[in-house]
Design brief:
349 residues, alpha+beta, 15 helices, 62% helix
Length: 349
């Protein structure tokens, strides 16, 4: 399963679909258009398509556009400040918690994301746990683990990441969640153990290769995550062309979630940085563009990753030294301090 894109205004990144009814983007890149989504639990998504009632496993969902969600959270979506947005999403989610859990889950997760962006991690995690307790069947329950893992891994908190990865695996197995979630929990376990230095580079690569073998073709979102990590290993091992080919394979696929796209673009940027030198500065420009795409194209990616991308985009600009590069680098660092002041990257030089 992927990091489900929760942009309630999906119209901004899928303009051709905006005038239509509900739609579902599946992890294989296909789209069910003009449907009506009636429920979304960790077991399945239910919808009506051309008059027929259908249901598919929840781990096959990449993105949802639900008109009822946009209508329910109109005031939150119209708010102009992050604080007002957060308060409106939370207020409405709590109001709907008992009467319409299907809608409430979207408000809880969006409010939690806004808290993370604002650096209020304890409050964000507490709100996610509140959703998990109040809405045990929510289709967005995996977000409780994903959001926590993204923050903990980005900040190097390996001990906490191991705890969350284990809880995700235990929950998915004990409650009989679809296999995609079980495999995603396995991915997070590998990442957490590597962060805790319980796996060396070779062990991490071997486990990712095994996971890719189990998920490629059947659980594409988990396979894409593993593929990016294997590309990172190839890049770190000096096989830059191999890494760039793997990143492109992920970036050219439909249905890839924004978190994975961000990881692939960051990897691509670092690969281009390795190709540059004072006599060949064009790769630095390519690196800058790849990092910048994270900021521009992956709205729901973790704030720490977007901040990292801006940091290295500015650094790539400095090395490129093309027209207006100095001014561009200053602007990028300004964006970093303005938009991601609460991240660990904002104070780095």
């Amino acid at each position: 399963m992927n990091r489900l894109s929760l942009s309630l205004l999906i119209a901004s990144c899928a303009a051709p679909l905006t005038a239509q009814k509900d739609h579902i983007v599946w992890t294989d890149g296909t789209i069910t258009r003009d449907c009506r989504i009636t429920d979304f639990t960790w077991r399945e998504v239910k919808f009506t398509d051309q008059g027929r009632s259908e249901a598919k496993p929840a781990d096959a969902v990449a993105r949802l556009h639900v008109e009822k969600v946009q209508n329910a959270f109109k005031r939150a979506l119209a708010a102009t400040s992050k604080d007002d947005k957060y308060l409106e999403f939370r207020r409405q989610a709590e109001k709907l918690s008992k009467s319409d859990p299907f809608l409430a889950q979207f408000g809880y997760v969006e409010a939690s994301r806004l808290l993370v962006q604002n650096g209020q991690l304890g409050e964000a995690f507490a709100l996610l746990e509140k959703m998990e307790s109040e809405l045990p069947d929510a289709g967005l329950r995996p977000e409780v683990y994903r959001i926590k893992m993204d923050v903990q891994l980005a900040r190097g908190d390996a001990a906490s990441a191991k705890v969350v990865a284990k809880k995700y695996a235990d929950t998915a197995l004990q409650q009989g969640w679809p296999d995609g979630f079980v495999h995603e929990a396995e991915y997070f376990s590998i990442m957490a153990r590597a962060a805790a230095e319980e796996l060396d580079a070779g062990g991490r690569r071997a486990e990712m290769e095994t996971l890719l073998g189990k998920t490629d073709g059947s659980f594409p979102s988990v396979a894409d995550r593993a593929r990016v990590q294997l590309a990172n290993a190839a890049r770190d091992g000096g096989r830059v062309d191999e890494a760039l080919e793997a990143y492109e394979q992920v970036l050219n696929k439909a249905g890839v979630d924004e978190g994975t796209r961000a990881e692939a673009l960051i990897g691509q940027g670092h690969a281009h940085l390795k190709q540059g030198d004072p006599s060949n500065t064009e790769p630095y420009r390519e690196a800058m563009l790849a990092f910048l795409r994270v900021y521009l194209e992956t709205e729901s990616a973790p704030a720490e990753r977007k901040a990292e991308a801006l940091h290295f985009a500015a650094e790539a600009c400095d090395k490129w030294r093309g027209p207006d590069a100095g001014q561009m680098a200053r602007r990028l660092r300004g964006f970093l301090r303005r938009d991601y002041a609460e991240t660990s990257w904002a104070s780095r030089r």
